[in-house]
Amino acid sequence: MKIVIIGNGMTSYKFCEKMMAKAAPGTVELVVFGEEPRPAYDRVHLSEFFSGKTATDLEIAPASWYAEQNITLHLGDPVQQIDRTLKTVHSYKGITESYDYLVLATGSAAFVPPIPGVDKKGVFIYRTIEDLEMMRDYAPKATTGAVIGGGLLGLEAAKALLDLGLKKTHVIEFAPRLMPRQIDEAGSNLLKAKLETLGLEIHTSKSTTNILGEDTITGLQFSDDSILEADMLVISAGISPRDEVARLCGLETGHRGGIVVNEQLQTTDPCIYAIGECALYNGMIYGLVAPGYEMAEVACSHILGSHKAFTGFDMSTKLKLIGVDVASFGNPFAPADQCRTIIFEDTMKGIYKRINVSNDGQHLLGGILIGDADAYNMLLQTAKNKVILPPNPEDLLLGARGAQTEGGAGVLGLPDEATICSCENVSKATICNAVTAGNETLDAVKKCTKAGTCCGGCVPMVKDLITSTMKAQGKYIRNVVCEHFSYSRQELFDLIKIKEIRTFDDALDHYGQGDGCEVCKPVVASILASLWNEMILTKGNDTVQDSNDRYLANIQKGGTYSVVPRVPGGEITPRQLMVIAQVAEKYNLYTKITGGQRIDMFGAHVNDLPLIWEELVAAGFESGHAYGKALRTVKSCVGSTWCRFGLHDSVSFAIRIEQRYRGLRAPHKLKSAVSGCIRECAEAQSKDFGIIATEKGWNLYVCGNGGSKPQHALLLAGDVDSDTCIRYIDRFLMFYIKTADPLTRTATWLNKLDGGIEYLRNVVVNDSLGIADQLEAEMQVLVDNYKCEWKEVVENPELRKRFSHFVNAPEEKDPTIKFENLREQKKAAEWK
Amino acid sequence: MSLENSATLTWFYACKVDDVPANGGVCVKYFDEQIALFRFARRNEWYATQNLCPHRRQMALSRGMTGTQEGEPKVACPFHKKSFSLVDGRCLTDEHECSLNTYPVKVEGDRVYIGIGAGGQQVEVMA
Ligand code: SRM
Ligand SMILES: Cc1cc2nc3c(=O)[nH]c(=O)nc-3n(C[C@H](O)[C@H](O)[C@H](O)COP(=O)(O)OP(=O)(O)OC[C@H]3O[C@@H](n4cnc5c(N)ncnc54)[C@H](O)[C@@H]3O)c2cc1C
Ligand code: SF4
Ligand code: FES
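Structure tokens for the assembled complex are given below, as produced in the milestone run.
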């Protein structure tokens, strides 16, 4: 049987994958025509192209996958005609293929309203990788952006413009509110306020009548005659199904577009199916990937003779990437006479949650979450599976308060048939069975069931299911390190300490099995360093260090390294600056001021590292440990020595702290800062430990984080003197080092710590465990054992020898390394 | 590596045993090629693969971390931690990723040799 598929987007791929899995080998021949130049890619995560993903990262399956499956793939070759009597298709490049069954998976195109001027330069749509490439190339010329359309995609495009560096971006929505199809007015108002803090300007109830400018856009004109200046515009006003080839060959299409299909996804010609965003089922186009995948499944089964049916699909969605959570599920707008509505709103924090509960209080009908959508998966499943609600349904939004409530919440409370992963249509039972069968890690469950492999939205639930299934089997759940060590990091830490183990091999011989891997080696290396603070490159432990630690430098694109000397507190003398300048010029290094108040020199050949550091060490510099899970920087503001508001000398205190904890290795990196007054110019409240001067002393804050999930630090102790402050930091850091899981920053550690900040304060300040003296003593050992790693390498010929590229040609540098020029410096050549 | 095919191989002297850190790798220059050589001291085994990581075409595997996955020796690339089998070069973390070329290794006394197939490669031996 020969099946031709037109279109090579997301559902087309899914159809091929399902067909190859279901059909008996050798019985089905597949031929795919794709209009785009590349094989199917993940359109859902298209915007990640602007946060560094490449076209290859977005690929769903490379061309080689099609080849391995014996699927013929014609790319860059759209089908232009279908001959239904001869059962053939004809392509743009002149290929004719016959078919037994034809599947249309042509997707949709961006809908462009007929506004005069849409063809001007600087006007874009947002659908394919090529669209995004053009935007990226144009953006440096633009300063003010606009997006027509305040729906799901429009907001994503607006965020993309911000990410592309446009100073200002406007969103223009025709309806009186944002995301009119997903959220209500109150939610929309709150969303608008939040987006405005991100730098977007939102205009609702605006209808664009004209795009201004000669041949390049300069602005927009609206029906109320107002004008908005803009030099880049993205139109995201909806989608329009690609039904042109279908219409040409006489298949029935909807009057607003879309190829009409029945429950089996057959068009009006029973040999031709349509799936995905081009298919019109029951008067509706499903512009999401999960229903498309379900259609692929149904069409595939039907062609192979079984009888599944597509009966519509839930349109629940969660908006991603925009920097504020937005989700809507089930029926978000259920009318007042059919439901009871519970609303929670916190305008201070920017949170709005609404749920609609059936009049009898039994079922969840739908809802809206803005500002905090953590509960989305759980609520969606509760609604979809008609789970009977707890007696106080508001607990779903607010959590159980006071007395414990039974039932309702909890993943195990969901029925077996509940769909956990809607992209791959995996039920709760399938996942639990996989766990019972021995797939006890996320990776194993992903491999075995495919759950969580598409949009990833269900991963937290899958994890919860794994743990709760294992718990239900009476298994004691520990976060074991990996297949080589069946201990948690904390257990391993204690064992290594008690047995005074000093090398990785010893740890493995005593407590592990096998030969180790890239997960457990750095974990043990970090524990050894946190316990004994010995030179990390001593024989035996050198090759268990994470790659950056092993070379005492961060590896860069192309295989060169960066050099970051420590600049305690950010204070540096003109003399030291000159040394850095000389070294950077001599070894041709790109220099940049870092976000941590010091100077990074990039692009050093591995062979040059010891030479560079020899010069730096001679001038009094030390390693900055930018490569290690170790103390990074202690930022400072200028403080009372110069600043008219400064209460204390924040620079001196920052230097004291940085010198105390330099080289300290921990489960993850550590950052700190000291501000001289409450104006907080050093941003101490975003650090693992931060200190702010008060009239009476210092306030010590802990467990803050920047990065992708920023979190403010919490006050641990107020108005303490300098020595007390340092003693508290000793205790805090040592307690963290002993108990945190690998690669867990202090903020995440605190979030998981039973009892939270109160408990931590009890341990550190009130010494509730009676371990404060011990913690301080352990820290003092580490402080006393500190040596600069680079100084040791520079002085040790054995260690220096490891810094060469070729073992049999130690003088030669890697000839494949290439640089390009950028603003009078060099940069790494772009990788593929 | 089997003795049958070693006849068709050219054994190229790479370095001394002690030039390679225990349980680590080094990069060996073979004319214009770069070969990653691994010393699996715990198992007393040696492996060699191409030095180029196919993922982003980085000359980096010799700086990767060695280990095992269910008993199979492997190396993880320092850039994005993709793991490759040292036995047959296939990518263990991503079935779509290209495989590595592997080379047989033999140790005589304190000298380590890498076997290069006779398939058109130069046969001269470097000292
Ligand atoms: C150089 C620098 C960027 C710059 O040019 O300014 C930088 C560069 C890198 N950062 Fe950073 N970060 C730099 C300041 C920051 C800051 C700002 C700060 O420290 O004040 C943050 C947010 C604050 C925070 O960490 O809480 C920051 C949050 C991250 C994160 C996210 C951490 C998180 O908990 O979410 C990573 C990823 C990680 O560590 O896993 C990261 C990882 C990296 C790595 C190591 C990525 C890598 O593995 O290659 C980059 C290494 C570049 C290199 O080769 O040297 N970098 N990074 C900054 C070095 C500061 C320094 O002097 O040491
Ligand atoms: C920026 C963005 C963000 C999104 N975010 C989400 C999200 O968060 N969640 C979600 O569920 N969905 C999201 N979507 C929607 C999702 O991507 C689509 O629902 C999905 O891609 C539809 O798959 P498809 O295979 O039907 O169509 P497509 O992926 O569009 O594939 C159709 C392909 O067919 C080709 N084609 C058309 N005509 C022909 C022809 N005659 N011959 C050959 N080839 C042809 C097209 O060029 C195209 O490559 C998003 C979409 C975009 C653009
Ligand atoms: S320096 Fe930090 S933020 Fe910038 S690209 Fe690297 S990791 Fe990302
Ligand atoms: S370059 Fe090796 S894993 Fe990416």
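The first strand of chain B starts at residue 9 and ends at 16. The pocket of FE2/S2 (inorganic) cluster (ligand 4) is lined by residues B 53, 55-56, 58, 60, 77, 79-80, 82 (CB under 6 Å). Further analysis is deferred to the final report.
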